[in-house]
Amino acid sequence: xxxxxxxxxxxxxxxxxxxxxxxxxxxxxxxxxxxxxxxxxxxxxxxxxxxxxxxxxxxxxxxxxxxxxxxxxxxxxxxxxxxxxxxxxxxxxxxxxxxxxxxxxxxxxxxxxxxxxxxxxxxxxxxxxxxxxxxxxxxxxxxxxxxxxxxxxxxxxxxxxxxxxxxxxxxxxxxxxxxxxxxxxxxxxxxxxxxxxxxxxxxxxxxxxxxxxxxxxxxxxxxxxxxxxxxxxxxxxxxxxxxxxxxxxxxxxxxxxxxxxxxxxxxxxxxxxxxxxxxxxxxxxxxxxxxxxxxx
Length: 296
Known about the structure:
Largest sheet: 8 strands, mixed
CATH superfamily: NAD(P)-binding Rossmann-like Domain
Oligomer: single chain
Helix content: 25-40%
Structural class: alpha/beta
Shape: globular
Number of helices: 11
Number of strands: 16
CATH topology: Rossmann fold
Radius of gyration: 19 Å
Strand content: 15-25%
């Protein structure tokens, strides 16, 4: 297959790219600079430009580009960057695909379980409505921006990803050094649910979506059993053989992270109903095996 990707330099994008290449698939990586090597194509999400030649002949487009939610403190300017990087980029890709005479048959658009907001102890799946707050509103606009592709008859799937267990980046990449140093611990009261997924299963799920014609609309990419932060903390300690007696009080998190602390302390108990119904089998459904799989 020939597959186009945006966000191929990000945590998930790099892993997906490695997986596709390992199986002999051809890829086209959309980059914001001038293409430097074969297999690259130009795009500029802010201006809406996407090189149509990079999309022609593709069997799928996987759109993962977006500014990191936890990379910087949420100033007004950075919140705008978080929203614009997702909404403008998605709209550009969707319009470019829809304008082709023979568009790629499927668009897998990155999204996030942030769509559901704080669900407390209530378990939710793809049938649940959007939550309230900044991240849910971003996710709603993000997914709505793909409408040109859907209107053109392109199978469009929103991969609502949870917390990816990976040592090399993302939220978990920041946890591993702390726990290895013996200073990891629960965040706040630890009762908030974390819906995680191993990197292996994240990539496998994205590829499953590409290969499963019946899948369309939102699909949660999370392990079958969400756990509380307290349970995740204990599992990290067991796998890394480190104490986990320290805790980060909620006020300290709010001081350091600002508005983003509300999402760190929030609870999201998200179930992958549509993924399981479509026949996907998790390789690492449990937290301890996901953590071990992430270790070098």
